[in-house]
Hints:
By secondary structure, the chain is an alpha+beta fold. The chain has a single domain (2-199), classed as Alpha-D-Glucose-1,6-Bisphosphate, Chain A, domain 4. Helices cover 19% and strands 42% of the residues. The chain has three helices and ten strands, in the order αβββαβββββββα. Strands 1, 2, 3, 4, 5, 6, 7, 8, 9 and 10 form a ten-stranded mixed sheet that branches. A hairpin with a 2-residue loop joins strand 4 and strand 5 (88-95). It is globular and about 45 Å long.
Amino acid sequence: MKLVFLFLFIFSLPLSRSNPWILTKEMDGIKIYSRHSEISKFDDIKTEANFPGNIKQLSEILMDVPRYVEWAYATKSAEVVRKISNSELIYYSEINVPWPSSNRDFYSRCKLITGHVPGSFKIVAESIKNYGPEKKGVVRIPLSKGIWEVTTLSDKMIHVEYILELDPGGVVPAWLLNLFSTKGPMETFISLKKKMQMLNR
Length: 201
């Protein structure tokens, strides 16, 4: 499911807990898992890794929506459409999808949650149905929920976990799903890791 991680971002239906995660790829300390979803015909994806730095640095990156194009794999555009508070917003994003499939887009409500565990934060981003105009030739994603769970390991290291449930909508050929199931998550986490490394040289 290459599409799975792309839609970044990103989202609040309860995540399935009854099916086990299966490790599908591991590289450079980044692990990608999949499991059968109980609410979508497409598998859930989990990506996790340790990054240098602290939770404040990463939370600022994840809440800086317009710069998603710099690190979120295949993101064509991302913009804030409504700022609800300093920790909650609604944003729009369009995802590049290889021809002959059509690009996807979504509106998402994104909320930063802190204080539930010391030295940690959570970001929940959930697609909003029937929000905003649809673009001609672009498929609106009917379901997308992502949860970032970030915890402090030491004063110089954090652990990052991202879970995504997705139904990309439209016709999605198997080759495209297979392409996106590992490449999208891996490339996104590699880019994020590089950003954190640059901040902590």
